[in-house]
Amino acid sequence: MGERWDDREFAEIALLIREEEERALEIFRQRNFDQELRARIAAVPEKKSAFFGHKTAISASIAALVLVAAGTVFLVTRRPSSRPQSASGPIAVILKDLPGISDFLMPKETIPAGATDTFGPARTVRIVLATAARQKEEEERKAAGPTGNPRAPRLSLEKKMEILFRDRAIERVLVSLLKKSEEV
Amino acid sequence: MLTEEESRLFEEMMTYQEDVFRICLGFSRNPSDAEDLSQDVYLKAFQNVGKVHTPYALKEWLFRIARNTCLDHGRKRRIVRFFEITARPDNAVETRTPESSADKGERLNSLKKAVSRLPAKQQEVFVLREYGHLSYQELAGTLGIKQGTVMSRLNRARRAVTDSVKEGHHG
């Protein structure tokens, strides 16, 4: 009931709207909407592609800069270790320092002539130490390289940080220059 | 540019240009603005036609673009009006029609004010129904609400507009 009452009350308003609409549509039909729209559409992609190209160039150059910086940092920090870590050296030192064992660590030459090295543990320890010493020498020889020159020492953390900060600063300057050139 | 299917969809959308224009007229209440808005609507539709996933709901999709474009335009216009010191002469439809009487002009002005004063949710239902001639089902689909909600909002909007025009006319 209420809705019907509203509809009847609203009928006049609806008529007013129809009249307004018809008059506006008359004007609209006189205009060449279709042609104007298609002309506008035809003009848009050019703008879009130019804008897109400009944007792509900026992002590509920034990406390249970031890649270069990241590559430099990676090369500096992730340099392959000059020599593999070996536990044989420290073990030998510990064994040498142990009381009681040091007595068995006499070189073979110090054993009196005629006496036989029959003491089992001492012999084993000596063999272990000799092997460790040989291994260490071999590693050092390998680390020195074929020419015999020692490799560049590993960079300290401070040095690495310094290089990193320098890279960042260069990157920032390049980015700001890029922005300035865009503004120009 | 567009694929064959996208071109077909766009051409189908072009058949609704008068509906789109009427919706824009309902929101802007000015034929000139309504035409500009219709162009904006079709431009957006053209740029996004590739995103149409349900071609059967093309009409609703297009009307949703129209509604959003008009609401955005209304927001911008309100901001501009806020900063305007002197009000510009009203260039609504009634001032252009030679046969319009002072009384009709007054009523149209009242109607314009009444529609613009409606709460946003009622206003969009009112405009899409009274100007866009959308069915309840289409309205529900376009606005993403239930048909019952559409009917109650429309009823409230009609009542408010009627009262407001009556008050404006007599008061």
Give an overview of the whole structure:
The complex is a heterodimer of chains A (184) and B (171). By secondary structure, chain A is an all-alpha fold. Chain A is built from 6 helices and no strands. Chain A folds into 2 domains: 2-81 and 154-183, no CATH class; 88-144. Chain A is elongated. The two termini of chain A are 70 Å apart. Chain B has 171 residues and is an all-alpha fold. Chain B folds into 2 domains: 1-88, RNA polymerase sigma factor, region 2, helix turn helix motif (Rna Polymerase Sigma Factor, Chain: A); 100-171, Arc Repressor Mutant, subunit A, CATH 1.10.10.10. Helices cover 74% and strands 0% of the residues of chain B. Chain B contains 8 helices and no strands. In chain B, helix 5 crosses helix 8 (147-170) and helix 6 (120-130) crosses helix 8 (147-170). Chain B is globular, with a radius of gyration of 17 Å. Classes of the chains: A mainly alpha (184), B mainly alpha (171). The interface between A and B is medium-sized, with 26 and 32 residues.
